[in-house]
Amino acid sequence: MGISAVSATQLIRWNNHSIEYTEDLLAAEEPLEIRLGFGSAQNRMQQRISVTMRTPGNDFELAIGFLFTEGIIQNINQVSSVQYCTELNTKQHENNVVRVELVDGFEINLQTLQRNFYTTSSCGVCGKSSIDAVFQHCDSIALDQISITTETLIGLNQSLRNSQTIFTYTGGIHASAFFDTQGNLKIIREDVGRHNALDKLIGASLSQKEYTLKEGVLFLSGRASFELIQKAVMAQIPVIVAVGAPSSLAVDFAKASGITLIGFMKENKFNIYCGEQRIALK
Asked: Which of 85, 123, 126, 138 is catalytic?
């Protein structure tokens, strides 16, 4: 049986000297280990790739999105199957270990697999060499792709709130949402981890093969960090809107990559940090 995305807990609520014994819902948080199967049909190998703390649900999308944004795979056709490692058969590992099987003969850069994945670390990218490697790995985006009105941008915030199912119950979860240029919601994913929510969204787009992310807007429920910009660039998303602030490195990377980056999105105002050519200002 799978793990729920929410978990009930008992608590004591204190409110102006009034005490209430009640129950509340929390966003579930469980570890997910991602394993990779690769090699020829005669010599299949397995490699542990990453362990991340996530909200259960859309785990296969999370695994695929992670492999894509880390540059291990370039498209969904390189994946032959994704499944839980049910042979572990323990309560601790139940639905918490996912194995992604790549197509026979797909070449893997073992140095890439062995490096320390900064996206699962709270410290982020550390050191000039790590940053330079990320810059070299991502293709820039043409600035003349799309145009979006300010009215459309302003409407995204409320649309996201109306669609955040788990947040409605828990108030403690991040969301990544993708909208088309008219403001229509196409994909939304939620997770306790900001990076996981975006990996789930990108993984969903790859798996469904329905929506290209190259002509729309990524909306982030929190701040815009460097790692999130990097993932968006890998998916060639041209416009990023965040409820919170961007970091200085996020702005620098967005400028260098041709992304339109908007922060501090409120009901009637926002800041454009770069890529204003895509916004029909009036």
From this structure: 123
